[in-house]
Amino acid sequence: MRHGVARFVTGFLALPVALYLFYVVWPFVQAAGYSLTDWGGYSDSQHFVGLDNYVRLLSDELIRKAFWHNVFFLVTVPLFTIALALFLAFLLNVGGREDRAGIRGVFGSGFYKIVFFFPQVLSLVLIAVMWQQIYRTDGQGLINGLLIKIGLVDADNPIAFTADPEPFLGVPAVLWWLLFIAVWSGAGFYMVLFSAAMQSIPKEIYEAAILDGAGRFHTFFRVTLPLLRDTVSVAWVYLGFIALDMYALVFVMTPSQGGPNHASEIFASVLNFTAFQKGQYGYACAMGVALAIFTILLAAVQLRITRRERIEF
Amino acid sequence: MSVTPENLGDLSRRTLLRRAAAAGLLATPAMGLLSACAGSEPKKSDDTGGAAKSKHNPFGVKDGSAVKVVIFNGGLGDQWAKEDKVIFNAKHPNITVNMSSTQKIKTEEQPKMATQPSDLVMNSGADMMDRSTLINEGAIEPLDDLLAAPAWDSEGTVADSLLPGTVGDGTQNGKFYVVNVAYTVWGNWYNAALFKKEGWQAPTTWDEFFALAPKIKAKGMAPYVHDAVHGYYPRWALMASIWKSAGKQVVVDIDNLKDNAWKADGVLKALEPWEKLVKDKLLLPGKLDHTQSQQAWLDGKAAFIQVGTWLKNEMAATIPPGFELTLSDYWSNPGDKAAKDVFAASGEGFVVPSKAPNKEAAKEFLRAILSKAGSAKFAELTKSLASTKGSGDNVQDSALSSSNNLMKNGGSELISVKFQDFYADLDKESQNLSEELMAGRLTAQQFVDKMQAAADKVAKDSSIKKQTRTA
Fold it and tell me: Is residue B28 included in any domain, yes or no?
């Protein structure tokens, strides 16, 4: 690169990098610093306590509970979202009948694409507020109202949705109801992502497979899925981040933000309680740092596992 | 008590957008959470006091200065505060009052506490700053000089003009920190017009209630409804029952984390009728929140609801014509130690941050809020009593007069509970367990055992600073 160009590029990048360092990186460093203190959050007095907060973290029962709930989402959110998104993308792109024009999606696929993508343009909080009405716990709720009308649910015992801590398959029901919303709101985006990836797969490969007598099932598992491997693994990492968050849904939709009786407690809700209600900012920062380290490790592991040589079309 | 409801259920468009922005920050969880912890370096505040002190200006507020006042705009609205601003400026025309109102007190004020706080903050609602933390961190100013100052427009000092309990409610570690401006009475509400029409007598004991319940059910109504989302709603009722049954000392022991305080005589007995209420299916089905349950009650789906006196103002828009909101005391059992004591407390607490630039004007503004004229406006506009004596004397209203009567016929003591203000952990556990009891997932005995265990855990935790309740 010529000298003048390098200076030109540096000049352009200096300001954004400085802003990024000051507004993004510096707060992270500060938080890591606070995590070694007993700062309460309301004053400017704090004492250095070393790794005490991290030691405490290991024996905190509530954090352990929250951790397992996060693990539940970590496994289920990517699994169900990707499965659903792949299924929809397959139907919309290559699921239809074949004719002289080649392989195409099911009838009306353009319309479905818009419908499925729609939740993505809504903010998560908006989605939570909307689902609060759908999940309302008496006859005025959308689901309860319908089910009571057709006699599937007893009016004296409506579905409690996010106020229900009773375990289903060993996991509190409230987490399943939240999972349903997370998958519903996430699948559309990944469907579009997978659609784009599928469209870049040459039609000839499909036609060759069909000529060889492959059905839909085999086309999907032997042709489509292997060729989407890269995209799926990226989606997996993104969804992992989302699963470790889930804060907006828990905060807006569950009783006492993590209830009932801690049944939907997640890392972020415990952190919020510790910092803003208990006034133990130092300890809360330690939770934040621990979660950050966990997230980064997870992303690294996921990308490493799914790495494989790329196929060029 | 300083807990008041906020409309968590119906988010306004603006809060929604603001939260949406916050949620955007959280897209990558660790990053958003990390930066939430970050603070900034404190700045020195400059002193604005120093004018001559007099009877009409006891704190020496400087003319030409400005004071920033933040009002919690919840169940009581904020119109009353605007009236206080008029009263204040009539005496101090040259002091600028910058008043703003919000539902997100902690979200907006906490980040400024260590650097450039507002001068006067109404710390209330679901999103309030934890009071013990504020005091332990030295973030708010003791206001004992406000109590000793002359009242704005009546004889004697500010302390003399307040209803009983108000000074005690705002005191911690022997100093007065929190100025509660509202006076709330809690109990069981019913529609007097309906009861007259049906010929029902409002019960005063649990036995009378359980006798009336089948008649209510026969009319297709649920006898009782409560907020099943915010645990502090049922907790008011449970703690009132415990106080009535076991007496004041037991509640003081509970607040002081005494060994086996929850196992004292009368505690279990107080909770058993609540267990029976749930088991006999006398509750309206569904896990409704505060406004949903209040609306269900207004719609005639349930006969009784337990909540405080802000109810009328909160539901003003949807009260059907002819509906007579009437407050009655929590039900008691024969043999209760303090059956006549009423659950009432000052609430809606104002605090003055230690680093506030114009503390003198903040205190002067408090004097205006607590004035006769200001408190009368408060009662008129909110249909709730103010913590200043005589605020409701000239207001005609069934909700206000029934709560006035309840206060007049009450016992010698006011029911009050402190542990939830002292310890955030116990606050959360008691809310959770109260809802579990009301959902029928805990028996009264299990509730008592679990509360005792939670109290013991806090008592043993050395990272939590302990408080003592004396009165």
Answer: no
